[in-house]
Amino acid sequence: MGNNGQLQSRKNIQKALDNFLTCADEARCKTNEQASTALRGGNVHRMAEGGIWLHTPQLIEKISTLVRECLVALNAFEIHETDIKEAMWSAATAETNSKNRHRQFFELIETARNVPQIFLAANHLFVLRDPVKIVEVGDVVILRTAALANDESLALEIRVGEAEGIHFTEAKPILELPFMAWKVLVSTSVRNADEEARWKINIAISLLRCALLTLPSALRPPNGDVEHQPTEPSRITAAALLEGRSCRFSDNYGHRYQIDEIALNHLNEWKLNDTAAEIFYPQKDTVGERLNRGLGWMTLARQTKLRAERFMHFFTSLEALLTKKDQSVPITQNIARSVACIISNNPKSRIDISKSIIDLYAKRSSLIHGGTRAEIHASDVYKLQSITEIVYWTVITRKPVKTIYQDFSRELERASFGLEWPESV
Fold this sequence. Notes:
The protein is of the alpha+beta class and 425 residues long. It folds into 3 domains: 4-113, no CATH class; 114-281, no CATH class; 283-415. The chain has helices at residues 4-8, 11-27, 32-41, 57-74, 81-93, 98-112, 145-149, 193-212, 261-269, 272-280, 287-303, 307-322, 331-343, 347-370, 378-398, 405-415; strands at residues 44-48, 51-54, 115-122, 126-128, 134-137, 140-144, 157-160, 165-167, 174-177, 180-188, 236-242, 246-251, 257-259. It has a 4-stranded antiparallel beta sheet with strand order 3-10-6-5. Strands 7-9-8 form a 3-stranded mixed beta sheet. Strand 8 and strand 9 (174-177) form a beta hairpin. Helix 13 crosses helix 16.
């Protein structure tokens, strides 16, 4: 919801916490004999702070209910399930005073969530050409590792080198990174930081890629090619024997992006940094919230080598942007019409684009519900990738990120009856 007070005000969470504490008190061993019996029988759920709790179906149910209610209130991005469980058990081991236990639980939850952090990692996907030193995409920064090495405010020492990883010394820990690095600002549970930072990187990559679509000279991975993992070095991962006499090696190498001065000026003209900031922190029920959901899936699609998986991820990205809460129109028709109206205002072109999406969606349905990988051709994936990237960049450049999503959706619905999109003001 947003803060500790709002969480405490939820009666369902208060009730779930009361139920858990009552059940935990009942499951706690009261005597040494009970504890010994539980240990011998292997019926121990938890041992901590001098207490032993029995493993009972009722206790498991109460734990699950409280965790679920907290995640619904805060969402899984702000806090980790383990943080909630630690707060629960800390309250359970405290003195049996309802107010104190409740206060302790909510204080620990508040301490654990939305912790500001800096995520640093090797960058194996981008190269910055002189004189470009840094590219900022909202909370995601692409920079040369040497710039981090001179930052004395960091709690560790950064060095440029090939032996990537952490080295512990008597002074500061040493993080050795290659020539390029990622620097990402995240505010979440410490346990969520790695995942959330990597997802922000994925959003930033797709946003950059879409922006570079309109720059012919941009050096970026071609459509359909596997994109290199953003934080992983190149290495041979497998080998295929050809009739037992020769080998074909498989590695995780993919094409990379190069940002030169022309590309950087192009990104600055589009005010990409400002747009990214709005997408990373979108207002609820806006176009920006949908862009935030979908851009990361585009990156996942480009990174996987499996054709069927790429196909699914690109459709997930389209659905994240275009699926309406109102399901009165079949999802296939809605996606097909919306895509057609975004890409073209020509009636004939809209019909052709819509038919292509319907045909591709039929293959997607066969894949999801029947596992029919053989129907997914490379040309299908290339076409779907092009459509998805064009749709996203068209929306980003022609609709304000703060547009209310319901208004955006209604405008697309009107366009499906022949009006231009976007409508003239």
